[in-house]
Request: fold
Amino acid sequence: MLVNRLRTRAHTARTRAHARHTARARADDQGSALVSVVVIMLVLSLVAMTAAAVVTGTASSIVQTRGGVQAKAAADAGISAALAQARRTSDFCALSLTASTPSYSVTSTCTTDRVTFTSTGRGTDGGTTVTQAVYAYETAPSFGGAAELVFFNPAGESVYFTNHVMPKSTGLTAVEFPAGGGFECKTVIPGDVRIKGSFQGQSGCTITGSLHAGGSNPFGAWSVYLNNSDVVQGSVTSGGSTAIGGSISKVGGTLTLPQSAKLQIQWADVTAAKPTSHAKVANGAANGIRWQPSVTAPTFDPWFDYAYKAADWPGYDIVTITPTSAPYSCSTINGKTTTFWNTFVTGLAKNTVVDTTACTNGIDTAFGADAKAQLGVNLVLVANSFSFGKFTLTPKSGTDPQAWFVVPDLVADGQPTCVPGRTIETDAYIDIRVKSMAYTPCTLRVGNGGTWTGSMYAGTLDDGGSINIYAHSMALPGQWGAGPGGSGATGGGTTTLGALLSQRDIS
Reply:
């Protein structure tokens, strides 16, 4: 019994010990599981946080990428808009464009032969892209009202300025020949020469300004031909082949000509070498000779058709001379005994238009009259023709009047429509000191000396003698935007956008 009881107690003790061990083991297992769960939860949390960060970063990257694409597209759209306007208006050297959809702003700056467009595009996130595009451009000069001497001699016909036609005024802006005819020179021209056709020096021509010759209807093969002692002190732009003659001839500024042109210097053909400098051009300066893919011909204002109307001269007294008018008629304004000039013209106290278009033979001082007048007011003389022999027109002391001698163009067709006989002729004894404009769609014929002050605008010029011309800019009503007595405005230019030179994003 005692042994059994002891065995029972020992078994019970072992059972209890086992139970305690089992409980401790279970507790240890539960603790380990809890740690494992916590670790797993931490790992899962880290994974979730990382995934969230990746998603957030990806979304942000997508937004940033979208904003960058929008900014780049907007900058490109700005460049396209600037190019469209530049090609449409030819006005692109101080461009300023803005738009909101897409959002961009564009500016431009020009150097001598290239324009830089800078476009800033903006995305929805506020980001920006700045794109810069550089284009070449060419300017074809558009000449107009700045010229005091303008002659529309047609193709195949030359105007000569020899030692018989001598522009004297250092204030001369330019001599223009817009219609394609030639110009030959053997005198000093104190200004620019602008010609649609071609130029030929006659050994003794000096142009103190620049020469621009379009090159149509060349003299032989030449758009510009400088003979033995012809000098252009400024620059020369030639639309075709060019010759610079003997030891004295030279170009003081740059020489611009097309790559297809022939170049002859001191009688040697240097075309093949395509030199960019020579002692005869710009004193040998680098890039003094500029070969261009093409040289755009200059453009000019078309012929200004003027058919006289009294309404063109507001505030002027209108005097009409007819075969039966009094005190002066068509017959009494001309001839030896006329007092028209020294009495009527000298006595004018108000600006006056004298319309003699009813007089078939025009105004003529060549038939023995010694016509003299002092002018203190503006005078407009309208006639079918003028023939000035002994004729003196001077300003009264303390006055600065102007005069217009007008042979109207009766056909409004944008070209000088000449009816034979509608000319203006001068002779040896003219002495016109009043600033005067001569206008005729026919020939302006100068002969045997005299002095002209002012401007000339004619279908062509016939050089017949030694006339001194003191230039002054003048215009007719409506010409070059001028009113009565207005001066012409300087011509601008037609710019043409050329090839793309470079394009890049700068930020």
Summary: DSSP finds two helices and 38 strands in the chain. The helical segments are 2-89, 340-345.
